[in-house]
Predict the structure of Ribokinase.
Amino acid sequence: MSKICVIGSSSMDLVVTSPKRPAAGETVLGESFKTVPGGKGANQAVAAARLGAEVHMIGCVGDDHYGKAILDNFQANGVLTDYVEPVTGQESGTAHIVLADGDNSIIVVKGANDHVTPEYVQKALPAIKQADIVLIQQEIPEETVDYVSGLCSSLGIPLLLNPAPARPLRPETVEHAAYITPNEHEASVLFQGMSREEALKRYPEKLFITEGKNGVRYHNGLEERVVPSFPVNAIDTTGAGDTFNAGFAVALSEGQSIESALRFANRAASLSVLKFGAQGGMPKRDEVERELS
Ligand code: RIB
């Protein structure tokens, strides 16, 4: 069983389903409201655990009832929580999601996730040093992402950086990461002034641009390649990117080739959108393998 550390956010998703997205100044009547576990870090940790890895989550929750529910959810999914601490007097992170017109829009309030500092991460060094791969995203402080990239590089542990939500990265952080997985919008923020082709060619087998229904695009050192996604009728795409990143990390940590790892990740992501909620449709390992065979 491969060992994965996920360093990132743990939040509660407050999800409104509505026939229409309100314009500025407009009020619309929604259809339903649900509260479900989310946060990009937590989603990736849960997805990786369901896909068969031993997963340590490194993060913070609030000392509120959401924090307790987030911890319970990790435990129900077999994610190790030795390095998930409640922060006294702090609210848990929340994501305010509108599902309308077949897509989502999200506002994240970081709350306790802002306490995932470089000093906090240092407490988890014993787990990080044992990891086959580390996953990180950008719903935690920027200096933590920079610190972890340097740490993983110095320890010789591959870091998969999912640069979401989008913000520019320091050149050293890009150099230190083993894999970077932006979507098209995030890639345009990261590689300003460079065309997609130039960016992919500059970072062969490091930069993987996810293009939703089209699949994933990367450069293998010789040519640009697209590994196609699996067509499905999506119910809720929230968390599909997180499932992709978790699947990619799990497959890579098991020694699969890049192409095989991307197929595995795409298949897992395609299954994840068949149910409501970021984590609702995240598949178990045997479901992905059944579909792939
Ligand atoms: O990637 C999906 C996640 O982004 C949601 O679960 C929400 O928490 C937001 O952070």
